[in-house]
Amino acid sequence: MIKPVMALALMAGIAAGPAQGASLSFSNAESLTPISQNGLLALFDTNIGILQSVRLTLVGTGSSTFTLTNTAGISQDVTATSRIPMYFSSSLPGISATLDALMPALLLEASTGQVVLAPGTSSSFGPIVSTQSLALDSLAPSLFSQAGGGSFYLYCENSDEKGLAGGNTAVSVNLVTQAGCGATVVYDYTPYLVSEPVSAALVGLGVMGLLARRRRARRFARSDA
């Protein structure tokens, strides 16, 4: 009868402990655009607790280098700009549906500000760095939960666009961009714990079993005598 009682005691002792958080992330170095990068993140293991909420943060970094050439015989006042839209998707269908709806998920922007180009000259500006992030905290925890854990991929791609204000068509723009993506997932969960009273009860049951075995051993010794 000892084994069933111990099993019941263990079941009764499964309780929720204080809320905890786990943060996982990846970050890719910048490379020349267009990029095609990815990163691996862990799923939450439902064997260790109850997942309460999830925050997935998408991160993008970019740098833009401009070369402006004035072909006119007079100075030109111009402002050059760049835009780097970044698009994310995932190997998890439920997450990918949300990410696909973000068109784009991130938009990195850079500008030379207003500059004056002398007649017949070229000037370079940059790299001008831009960063942006987007926190998604309304995703269903069930999308990130799995018994035994596991992992999933996030993918990111981008394009780039350039613009010029001023110059009267006498100024040309050459734009070189680099970009990189990353992400962080934070799991807020309540872990499963075995309470101290139950641990003490299990020790007591073990002692009782040992005493019972000793009594039986003594009875057998007497009967043999």
Written overview of the protein:
This protein has 225 residues and is an alpha+beta fold. It is 22% helix and 56% strand. The protein is built from 3 helices and 13 strands. It has helices at residues 2-13, 93-100, 196-224; strands at residues 14-16, 20-27, 31-32, 36-42, 44-45, 49-70, 76-90, 106-117, 122-136, 145-146, 151-158, 161-166, 171-194. The strands form 3 sheets. Strands 1, 2, 3, 6, 9 and 13 form a 6-stranded antiparallel beta sheet that branches. Strands 4, 7, 8, 11 and 12 form a 5-stranded antiparallel beta sheet that branches. It has a two-stranded parallel ribbon with strand order 5-10. Helix 1 runs antiparallel to helix 3 (196-224). The longest helix has 29 residues, at 196-224. The radius of gyration is 31 Å and the shape is rod-shaped. The protein starts with a helix and ends with a helix. 23% of the residues are buried. Mean pLDDT is 83; it is low at 1-15 and 197-214.
- Name the helix and strand elements from N-terminus to C-terminus, one letter apiece: HEEEEEEEHEEEEEEH
Largest sheet: 6 strands, antiparallel
In percent, how helical is the residue content? Answer: 10-25%
Low-confidence stretches at least 5 residues in length (pLDDT < 50)?
A: 1-15, 197-214
